[in-house]
Amino acid sequence: MKGADTRKLNDQSDRRAFRTLDRMENNSLRRNVEDNNDVKDSCVNLKNSIPLLKELFYMHRKVGEGAFSSVFLATLKSSSGHKKFALKHLIPTCHPERIERELQCLQQIGGKDYIVGLELCLRNRGSVVFVMPYMRHDRFSEYCKDMTVEETKGYMRALLSALRRVHKFNIIHRDVKPSNFLYDRANRRYLLVDFGLAQQYTAENLKTIKETNMESVEVPTIRQKKSDENNLNLQPDSASRRHVSNKCYCFGKAKVCTLCLTRPQQAAPRAGTPGFRAPEVLLKHPSQTSAIDIWASGVMMLCILSGTQPFFRSPDDCTALAEITSIFGSYQVQQCAQKLGKKVIFSENLPGIDLMSLCLKLQKRNRSMTYDSEHNTYKKVSSNIEYPKEAYHLLTKLLDLDYKTRITAEQALSHPFLS
């Protein structure tokens, strides 16, 4: 009876498993059909928006999508060589200045040093399409765990060469990340793409941070108007103002004083992708430089050396700062904030972690298992990749918390690991 009961339970489990697999397969097929229909609709809508596309290109499929654009794979109708192109369609609500800035970057900077170039720009009313060369590429998650030392050198050398050229034009890319640095692993080809968030800067326009206790501000006095016995209206007296020092007494405390409430909210660029934002961006430093791109390239190198992708999984800026603190230590982050005119308070003091030791531990854990997409399973692998100490030294230079002492792309290319 016991054996029969066991077989019965096993049969029931198998039937439930097969029913579950059937449902998953049907749902997957349904989603694929819906996705294909969405892609077809997108292609049709794009052709209707810019009729000239129908005459020039065969549109095949959507290969990328972001908050401000969609990218389609296309081939030229008049070409016999079947050359592939990437058509980047900017959403009609994009600000004209944003479109102009990206177009200028592609024209002036693109086409050299692993930076995507521009073949053609088409516009019809509010619709704009950039026609660029298409490059087949691999997913970062598929190769970041098993890149050899020489492969890593080539990858970082190409990335930093592209950034060196961008920064020579006083341009900040602002969105350096693996999906914007395409890598064709089979042919060792690289391409930096997507200048949608690019920003121009000059040293003369960089603002200087002043000590908060050295400034003064006009603060309106409060006049108390009694309308009835239990109702008090607090109104600012426009006629009476008092001149007070900008120094407040809530600084560093768990409260906000009236003086701080009257300050205008500080505006600072925050564009970028979570997990790749530099400390000065997270701390809302108004004077951001090309060093934010270098930090992002350091995060990419950290993913490679540790075999961890993504490395930072922050949903917001506060969590992102906490993640950085868990690596570099609370004292180092506080020192970084102080140089930017900020103060960060932690509930406890966290020590910093040696990046080389951290990467070696994560390598051992992450490179022992790899995902087999063909069989949808994880399998054990043996990895003998050993990076030299120079690689970790470069990593610490790229991930310098202080943007003023952070290594530049030009300097990084002369580093012993890459030279």
From TrEMBL:
Family annotation (SMART domains): S_TKc
Q: Where is the Protein kinase domain?
A: 57-418
One GO term under biological process is:
mitotic DNA damage checkpoint signaling
**Position of the signal peptide:** none
Task: Give the superkingdom in one word.
Answer: Eukaryota
Residues involved in ATP binding? 88
GO cellular component annotations of the record = nucleus
Q: Name one GO molecular function term.
A: protein serine/threonine kinase activity
Q: Outline the segment boundaries, as ranges, of region: Disordered.
A: 218-237
Give the enzyme's EC designation: 2.7.11.1
Coiled-coil regions listed = none
Q: Which PROSITE patterns match?
A: PROTEIN_KINASE_ATP, PROTEIN_KINASE_DOM, PROTEIN_KINASE_ST
Q: Keywords assigned by UniProt?
A: ATP-binding, Cell cycle, Cell division, Kinase, Nucleotide-binding, Serine/threonine-protein kinase, Transferase
- Which InterPro entries does its entry note? Kinase-like_dom_sf, Prot_kinase_dom, Protein_kinase_ATP_BS, Ser/Thr_kinase_AS
State the family it belongs to: Belongs to the protein kinase superfamily.
Q: Which PANTHER family match?
A: CDC7 KINASE, ISOFORM A-RELATED, OVARIAN-SPECIFIC SERINE/THREONINE-PROTEIN KINASE LOK-RELATED
What name is this protein filed under?
non-specific serine/threonine protein kinase
Organism, by scientific name, is Ooceraea biroi (Clonal raider ant)
